[in-house]
Specification:
Length: 347
């Protein structure tokens, strides 16, 4: 592992809360709640939480979330895993993270949508205080939920916009639920002025990216890896400099892309697309931000300056409040400047 990459300050804009639960934490939650699990040691539990190398689709990938969700149905659990998400990001020297989750998936134990949001933001605040990583929340609508449920989610997010919540999102089974079905839901978000990012162009084609931008009001795209299938749309995304939230390891595992050799991140970068690199689901994918950066360097020849540019670009694309963003950019530039100075001295 390149020590420079480990030391590089980072930002993770696409990180799912229920995709980064630690096996040991799940065991502790289960024990406290009297919930049976198929293993009683973290290492033995990991296969139930992490995809295998032969994961065949996004749907198979998403099945891993059903294993942890029953234990994430109360405020105490959400606070804990949100705080631990910040702790894990700190280990990769992240300065900033945007953690996303679907509150409507966490109401089986009596929490309201707003109560789930409140718990997640409280956990992020505790993590920020403990580990020094600025953390904000993106609230997700799910593709398989009805419009009434998703509208309640958007309205709850709008009510807490600026109180730890920075944006709304749409996620889930993209192939079965095209983006056009959610125009009404995201019209409410646009009217309220809350930023929108949409999962699109991952398990379905670039038509969902087009719909997300032109009809739903997305100012960032989650994944968007299949843009190359529509050269006109790719050019539009390049011209508008709409950031793509790429998640290399996850994109390979979900079969959005066949394999590492086919992954177009180098060609996208060289074509001038606005790219960010993210973890998606550290536990499910077995990754972290340092590993994602290392993959870019080793597999695609990204230089140190290019990796630094990707991370700085992510901070610029962040939904965080402008004064906080300015301070983050200052911290980033200071740390990278120190890294470059140290490198020069070593040479």
């Amino acid at each position: 592992m390149d020590n420079w990459i480990e030391a590089l300050p980072k930002a993770d804009l696409h990180l799912h809360l229920d995709g980064c639960v630690k096996p040991g934490t799940l065991l502790a939650l289960a024990e406290a709640r009297g919930y049976p699990l198929p293993a009683d040691r973290p290492g033995d539990l990991l296969p139930y939480m992490q995809v295998e190398a032969d994961c065949d689709s996004l749907k198979t990938y998403l099945d891993k979330f059903n294993f942890v969700l029953p234990l994430l149905q109360d405020a105490e659990a959400l606070i804990r895993i949100a705080e631990e998400a910040v702790e894990q990001a700190a280990a990769s020297n992240c300065l900033y993270i945007e953690v996303r989750f679907a509150p409507a998936l966490h109401t089986d134990g009596g929490l309201s949508v707003d109560g789930a949001i409140q718990a997640a933001t409280e956990g992020l605040r505790r993590g920020e205080a403990a580990y020094g990583v600025v953390a904000r929340l993106i609230v997700i609508c799910m593709r398989h939920h009805d419009e009434a449920t998703n509208l309640s989610v958007v309205r709850a997010a709008v009510a807490r916009h600026g109180q730890g919540v920075v944006a709304v999102d749409l996620a889930g089974d993209e192939a079965s639920h095209p983006a056009e079905r959610f125009r009404g839901t995201f019209a409410v978000a646009r009217e309220a002025g809350i930023p929108i990012t949409i999962h699109a162009g991952e398990a379905a084609g670039p038509f969902n990216v087009r719909e997300a931008i032109l009809s739903l009001g997305a100012v960032r795209i989650g994944h968007g890896i299949r843009l190359r299938e529509d050269s006109e749309l790719l050019e539009l995304v390049r011209e508008r400099q709409i950031p793509l939230e790429l998640c290399p390891t996850s994109n390979i595992q979900t079969k959005a892309i066949a394999d590492w050799d086919d992954y177009p991140i180098r060609s996208y970068y060289d074509a001038g697309l606005y790219l960010t690199v993210n973890t998606d689901n550290p536990t499910v994918s077995g990754t972290n931000m340092t590993r994602e950066c290392e993959a870019l360097a080793s597999r695609y020849g990204f230089s140190r300056s290019e990796l630094a540019a990707l991370m700085r670009g992510a901070l610029l694309a962040a939904f965080v409040e402008p004064p906080v963003k300015e301070a983050l950019l200052g911290r980033f530039d200071e740390q990278v400047g120190r890294l470059l100075t140290d490198e020069t001295r070593e040479d």
